[in-house]
Each structure stands twice: as structure tokens, then as C-alpha cells.
# Entry
Amino acid sequence: MKVMMATDHYYPYPGGITEHTYHLSRELIKLGVEVEVLTSNFPHHFIDAPPDSHIIPVHRVGKSYYIRANKSQTCFSFSRKLTTEIKTIVEIGNFDIVHSQNSVAPTIPYLSLLYSKSINFATFHSYHGFSLGYELFKPLLLPVYQKLDGKIFVSKPALETIERHFPVENYKIIPNGIDVEKFIPEGEKYEFPFERKEDEIVILFVGRLEMRKGTRYLIEAFNRLGQKYENTRLVIAGDGPLRESLENQVIPKLKNRVHFLGFISSFKLPALYRSCDIFVSPATGGESFGIVLLEAMASGKAVVASDNEGYRELVTHGEDGFLFRRKDVGMLCEVLELLILNKDLRIEVGIKGRKKSLSYSWDTIARRVLQYYEEVMYRKK
# Structure
């Protein structure tokens, strides 16, 4: 079986779709599938690709441009020769399956499916409300959408997003995966830019510093709790347009206990998760799946998350994590205080989270995707 993964997001561009495409491709190759990636040329080198990424052949076309979408940053590809280049690669590649990552949206996923004469799949990663773009471009998108023989949604919220605009049938919900051998409780710890005392409790946030990630609510909560519990620190890993305003939000007396690390590469993330006591993701919406929560859970940490659509799919409140009403700083403080005061509870929740994370290993996810490929191919004979 020969598969082409078509995506506007791939190394060196960071993000969930990049990681998903790489890990799924790598695991499928281990299962005997021939996989190639079709993606863009990126003007900036954001992150390094994993050392073993060379096992996945990559075709690059056009040039990537960055835009704002779903209260975040995304990218699309363009060049005068883009259409011709994609058509040529798709036609001469003799692929059994063309698999779009992230919907049928422009440009590489859309054009790859448009010219495909293979069996076609798409994975839908995003969650958002009503999309004016989908409605405006529906006459253009619908014919390509109707070419899909199989649809994969990473969560129910991702499914609901597409149902608002297109008919949905012949689909499966297959979640994102994580590397459960990389994100583990034991191992090297992160070297913080401060001297950590033995009894200190580190609260960690990982994510892009933008509005929908809700970091301001975590800082507001720490402004209250940090004064009461002097053995706590807040570590914020990530960068983005709100960094300066978030730094200014920290009250003066706590500035020496709130640390902004900036962007952290995926290679250093496992050590960072291992080095915290509580992981918090206060995102206000737009999350189809809680990949950062899953990484923290796999690392054996107690997780606290807002009750947005994607996170409710993953966290069982009071068992393997805690949920709080989005934007509710008071409730966030209550949950954090409970965990700050109860080390045994932190450990118990972390153990249960690790156990749950094992069912999301990339090996398991790849086998489910491969089974779906085979089901559709058999049906199409």
C-alpha cells in the first residue's frame, strides 16, 4: 500500500498537525505501508525535524504564508506553479491513497484531492463555531469533499464542526496519539532558570501565548494563590503575541516566581513535563483535542483543564484530572489549591492519567487508521 499525506503543516513549521502527520507516517511505515508527505516550503526554520524523519520521503511545493484563523495562526501554500506541481506529483506517484491532513481546505490538501484518482481520505483536526469561509467557498469545496471515501475526525467536536456545513457519512473518530515511550514519568528533568527548593510546587503551562489559550486566567489565579502559598512557582512555556501583556499582568511581588521560558522544542518537552507538579491548560475554546493534556498525563502529572469541548473528551473529572468552568478564575483557584495541599492526590491522579494515556499510543492509532484504509479499499473493489 502506498499513501501520500497532503498537508500545509509540516516541519519546520511547529504544531499539532505537523506532529500528527510525522508520527502517523512513521508508525504506518513500521507497519509496512509506503508513505510520502506532500507539503510546502517554509520561509522560516521554526523547529528541527526529529532525527529519524528522513525515513519519510517529503515533496515540497510552493511557498508557505501565515494567516490568522480560528483565533490562532495557520498557514497555506501558494506559487504560480503550485497547481501544476501538485498535479504532477499526485498523478505520477501511483498512490493507493491520498490522505489530506486538516480538512479539504486550501491549498495543498484541496489540490491534492482535486487531482487525485486514488482512494481519498481526510483527517479533520479543528474545532470552531460557524465558519463563514466554509459557507462562502462551499461551491468550490463541496465537489472535493464529496470525493472523500473515508473521513477521520480526531474528536466529536471536530465532527460537529464539519456537520455544520457538510453532510457527514462514512467516517470514524480516531483521536490524536502521543509517543508514550517519549513522554514518561521517569527520566531526565528540565534545567529551570531558577534554583528550585525541595518543597516547591511547580505549576506548568505549555502553549502558544494567544487569546484562546486562556493563559491570562491562570496568571490571575496565581496572582491570588501565589501570595498565599509561597512554595509555589508558575512556569509558562511558549511564545506568542500576548507575551508582553501577560508578563505585565503578573503582580510585582510575584515576578520572581513566574517564569516565561519562551518557545520550547519538542525534544525538551518531556523533561519539562516531568519537572512540574501540576499541569494547567485554561483554553477558552477552539480545542478539538487535548494533546498537551495527554502529554502531561503520559508524564504522570496531575492535569487541570477548562471544560471546553475538546478537553471534556479526554479528562474524567476527579479521576485522571480536573476540569473547571472556562474563564472561572475562582473555580480554577479551588482546584489548584486542592492539589497544592494534597501531594497524595497529585500522585494518584497522575498514575491514573498515565494509565489512560497508554490507549493513545501512536502504534495503536496507526493500526486503527490502517484498518480503516483496508476497510475502505475492500469496499471500493
